[in-house]
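look at this record:
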Amino acid sequence: MKKLLLVLALGLSSGNALAIDECFTGSWHDSNNNLGEGINLEILPNKVVGYFYTWTEGKRNMYTLEGVKVESTVLMNMHSSYWTEGNYRVRLLGASEITVLDENTITFSYELFTAPEYPDFFLVPPCTEDCSAIYEYTRLTQPIPCS
């Protein structure tokens, strides 16, 4: 399922001249929004991992992200992680994409599944409204030294 999601998302990516690399590792946020929403990214040679944190229904949510780089775009799966019955569980919730606008600005977009993907999906309910969004984020942390 993960590979299929990334292959399908490849058709959504758009090309820019500025390729994403380890220099984009760090924290990114919406400087016009004081709710504390944003993403933390770790750009590795063959993988991208991160966290997306946001507010919904008055509570803070954090989602894990993992995916791959494709030139100026990162395509990622979005997961929810939680404890239940003494076990740690991770559920695939949807797909996300990061596109570089310039060295200090990126867009982050996501689309959540609207129907259950797993038999025990009731533990993480499917999205019923506001199932997709696009944010423009600016760099919060200093860029790491890059060659």
Q: What stands out?
A: Residues 2-139 form a domain with the Lipocalin fold (CATH 2.40.128). Residues 1-16, 118-123 have pLDDT under 50 and may be disordered. The chain has one domain: 2-139.
